[in-house]
Specification:
The complex is a heterodimer. Chain A has 34 helices and 20 strands. Chain A has a 5-stranded parallel sheet with strand order 3-2-1-4-5, with helices on both faces. Chain A has a 5-stranded mixed sheet with strand order 6-8-7-9-10, with helices on both faces. Chain A has a 5-stranded mixed sheet with strand order 15-19-18-17-16. In chain A, helix 8 (118-129) links the parallel strand 1 and strand 2 (133-137). In chain A, helix 3 (31-39) crosses helix 7 (83-94), helix 8 runs parallel beside helix 12 (253-272) and helix 16 runs parallel beside helix 19. Chain B is α+β, with helices and mostly antiparallel strands. In chain B, the strands form 2 sheets. In chain B, strands 3-4-5 form a 3-stranded antiparallel sheet, with no helix packed on it. A two-stranded antiparallel sheet of chain B has the order 1-2. Chain B is elongated, with a radius of gyration of 14 Å. Chain B starts with 12 loop residues before the first strand and ends with a helix. Classes of the chains: A alpha/beta, B alpha+beta. The interface between A and B is large, with 41 and 39 residues. Strand 20 (773-775) of chain A pairs antiparallel with strand 3 (23-31) of chain B.
């Protein structure tokens, strides 16, 4: 991932976009943050948040025209949060000593403010805070302009005075009863002020000013002509705003405050000789890109005030704050245990993954995070802007592999399992017995062959029966583990072998029973005509009508690799309907289905997160599940979820209660594949497997067997150790237990086995492994 | 399943090939180009080294993972 791409993906995630209330607020008050403080009962912190943006919180807390409330997402579930009343509550209960403005270095610049309404006062406050010398010229006897005209019960004069005291603290010089004009009757001439100051802001309210002879162009209605964005006039030193600008609009205190603030930004830039227009796209109200899902949220009306004139009591304010939805997107994090596990969201993850990929020195601390993603793309399905963590994680894995930075142990076991499926032990490509060509080729996939080989034999018999022209058989692995591990070269080599066999067999259409193989072929071998077993079954007569199926409702689980294969999903549902089994849809199904914990080799990279994924999935319904992917079935069954494979319904599962059958462990999966091949070769092609001596008998308790699964140690590994130890006597005897301990390092892992000799075979007591090599151990 | 095989004093580990008791000795463990000195039980005759389960599944695993993330 290069830097530009990382930035692009990072900026795609909308989670850090401001909520609606903040973006609609002209000066972008962090209302969500303020309300969060109130929710916790911390009004002082709430006040600090408000005061960070609003210089006069007492005034605004009472009279803001609150455009934030018209866009509040709570409207979709009840009524808007009464944000302005909560601002007032922060002032009432949280204002201690008002935040002292930061003392900054005094600048050698003087700014005059003509008119002391909210816009002028805000400009004065902001510029004084930046170190400018500021003088206010107000024609009236009080600061505040129209702010003074509100009902005293709503906005007491004292409250105004408290707010405005901040100006004096900042050293602002205030001239009251000081009308400014170039005409007669003024106490100061406007031109004199322009000449005597470095910049001037005029905010004379909504009144016409043409009679003042300000030497500035005016509009037909006699107001100063003001440039949008910069608030400049035709005199580069003079800026203007407030009611003068938005006349004849109604008085909007927050818009006046905005004008003063934005004009102050321009004045500050003017004084520094900087661009007045650069990077001002998000000045004023804008439409946020943040998405907040309000579906399923219980509607709640606004908390009422017991005494309206007094505003919210503390308790009422806290209750009102509790209604706030605390707008977030997090759509992907809500549906994905992996994204939730790392405690953040894609914007941050993209940065973390990029940094992990590009650091030269030090540890790659996010390797495991990169390797834990199931690559299932559910995040993209629910993301309002289609950001896909699977693409990001897969890119990162491929990069790690290409740089030699992929941890060796992460995918080693899964890739060795894949190699087994591609070895002589399992790989097979044959025309149907008695045929020299194939009209179709059955590709069961490695995991169905490992999980229920008897089904593979049954399907193959069925397909030979219903399809004319010969149905060949191809046993192997599509390379999905290599693709997921980021091993591009190995993956393409694997596909190549498969494609060559397909060509050699006359390019027949491929029928696969595995959703992952189906996707891998579709996405990577566009010339290869591939069909899902399920659409084939849907379009044919089912092998027979089962009469032993209890019509008990089951919940259907779509594998994540079939997320976009609508026809496959529908075929499955029609097949199950024909079998007479009522189906229930899970909350997440079809294109919104979830991974079973195997996808992306998640369970190898991070079993803890894989467990969370499976556990969440199996809790979605109490009904028995019905899967059509062998890995999904076995992963659910491993956690005690009752589950059947659709093939269990069609061909029978064998045994009493097949829904509670656990899938085979890693060792048995190998054996099943190998046995499937030898049995098919024997039964169909009449070939006898090469004579092999009897396997060394191992006696393994259930407890040890489970330990071997967790530690990913195969029985074959144990046999190699014991065989070597018995042949060479390279073993250690424990005098207390009488057990032997021996080790063997076939390639890159040292396996240790503790065993003893029983009457019928070797009893395995324990096994463990390590990758580190002991130098000079003679291995 | 046995616990750490070299911790209890009443047990001894005997190299079955040489029929001598394993004794603590200095060896080196290596992974991904890094080497560490470590004291492990070793056969004084043939030099076979014993890596106990607690070490393999504990500290050794941690070091392996840390080195893989380098």
């Amino acid at each position: 991932m290069d830097h530009t791409k990382a930035r692009e993906r990072e900026s795609q995630c909308i989670q850090e976009q401001p909520p609606e209330c903040t973006s609609a607020c002209p000066v972008h008050v962090n209302a969500r943050g303020m309300i969060e403080c109130i929710r916790k009962g911390d009004f002082s912190a709430g006040f600090a948040v408000l005061n960070r943006t609003i210089p006069f919180p007492g005034i605004i807390g009472r009279i803001c025209d609150h455009p934030c409330q018209t866009v509040c997402k709570r409207i979709e579930a009840g009524a808007a949060i009464r944000i302005n009343s909560l601002e007032r509550a922060c002032v009432e209960y949280g204002r201690g000593t008002q935040n002292k403005p930061l003392r900054v270095m005094k600048k050698d610049k003087k700014v005059a403010i003509v008119g002391a309404g909210l816009s002028g006062l805000t400009a004065a406050f902001d510029l004084a805070s930046k170190g400018c010398g500021v003088e206010i010229f107000e024609a009236g006897r009080l600061l505040g302009g129209r702010v003074r005209e509100f009902d005293a019960q709503l906005l007491p004069q004292l409250l105004i005075d408290v707010d405005l005291a901040a100006l004096a603290e900042l050293g602002v010089v205030i001239h009251l009863n000081a009308p400014v004009t170039n005409g007669c009757g003024g106490s100061a001439s406007f031109d004199g002020i322009v000449a005597g100051f470095d910049a001037v802001y005029i905010g004379p309210g909504p009144h016409a000013v043409d009679h003042l002879n300000l030497n500035l162009p005016v509009t037909p209605s006699g107001r100063v002509k003001i440039a949008p964005v910069t608030y400049g006039t035709n005199n580069p030193k003079v800026f203007a705003g407030g009611g003068q600008r938005y006349y004849p609009g109604d008085y909007s205190p927050i818009t006046s405050l905005l004008d003063g603030r934005l004009a102050a930004v321009s004045i500050d830039r003017f004084l520094q000789g900087a661009s007045l227009t650069a990077q001002r796209e998000q000045d004023g109200p804008f439409v946020t890109a943040l998405y907040t899902n309000t579906q399923g949220i219980e509607p709640l009306q606004a908390v009422t005030m017991s005494i309206t004139a007094q505003g919210y009591s503390r308790e009422e304010a806290i209750n009102e704050a509790r209604r706030c939805l605390n707008c977030q997107c997090l759509e992907c994090v809500k549906v994905c245990e992996y994204l939730a596990h790392y405690g953040s969201y894609p914007k941050r993850y993209v940065r973390e993954i990029y940094n992990n990929d590009t650091i030269i020195m030090g540890s790659h601390l996010s390797n495991r995070m990169v390797n834990t993603c199931a690559l299932c793309s559910l995040c993209k399905e629910v993301c309002p802007v289609d950001l896909n963590m699977a693409d990001i994680c897969l890119d990162a894995r491929q990069s790690m592999v290409s740089k030699g930075k992929m941890p060796l142990s992460t995918h080693d076991f899964a890739l060795r399992d894949m190699q087994f499926s591609l070895s002589e032990a399992f790989y097979l490509a044959r025309h149907e017995p008695g045929f020299s060509a194939s009209s179709a080729l059955f590709y069961p996939g490695c995991q169905l062959s490992a999980s229920s080989p008897h089904h593979v034999a049954s399907i193959y018999a069925y397909l030979r029966d219903v399809i004319e022209g010969g149905v060949g058989l191809l046993l192997g692995c599509c390379g999905a583990p290599a693709a997921w591990a980021g091993q591009e070269e190995l993956f393409h080599r694997t596909l190549q072998v498969m494609a060559e066999d397909w060509q050699r067999m006359g390019k027949p259409r491929i029928i696969t029973a595995c959703s992952s193989c189906y996707r891998i072929f579709k996405d990577n071998l566009p010339d290869l005509p591939v069909e899902s077993l399920w659409t084939v079954l849907d379009n044919s007569e089912l092998p027979w009508v089962r009469t032993d199926i209890k019509p008990q409702t089951m919940a259907i689980h779509d594998p994540c690799t079939a997320r976009h294969d609508k026809d496959v999903q529908q075929s499955i549902r029609r097949i199950v309907a024909k079998l007479g089994v009522p189906l229930r849809e899970l909350d997440h199904h079809s294109d919104l289905t979830t991974c079973c914990g195997y996808g992306g080799l998640m369970s190898f990279a991070n079993p803890e997160v894989a467990d969370k994924v499976v556990n969440r999935r199996i809790k979605e319904s109490d009904a028995d599940y019905l899967a059509y992917c062998a890995m999904c079935r076995d992963n659910f069954a491993a956690r005690g979820k009752r589950v059947l494979h659709v093939l269990d319904l069609i061909f029978g599962a064998g045994g009493e209660d097949s829904a509670s059958r656990k899938g085979p462990g890693y060792s048995r999966r190998h054996e099943n594949r190998a046995k499937l091949k030898t049995e098919l070769l024997h039964d169909l092609w009449g070939e006898k497997a090469a004579e092999k001596g009897p396997d060394m008998k191992l006696i393994i308790s259930r407890e040890v067997s489970e330990l071997l699964e967790r530690r990913m140690i195969l029985e074959e590994d144990l046999r190699q150790v014991v065989r070597h130890a018995e042949r060479t006597s390279e073993k250690i005897r424990n005098t207390k237990t009488g057990h032997f301990i021996a080790r063997r390092r076939p390639v890159s892992v040292t396996y240790w086995v503790e065993y003893s000799c029983g009457d019928t075979g070797f009893i395995i007591h324990n096994a463990y492994s390590h990758r580190m090599e002991v130098v000079g151990d003679g291995l | 399943m046995s616990e750490e095989n070299n911790s209890a004093p009443e047990q001894a580990l005997i190299c079955a090939k040489c029929d001598v008791e394993m004794k603590p000795g200095k060896v080196r463990a290596s992974y991904l180009g890094s080497e560490f000195p470590i004291e492990l039980l070793k056969c004084p005759v043939c030099g076979m080294v014993f890596v106990p389960e607690s070490l393999a599944m504990g500290k050794m695993l941690k070091v392996e993972q840390a080195l893989e993330d380098k």
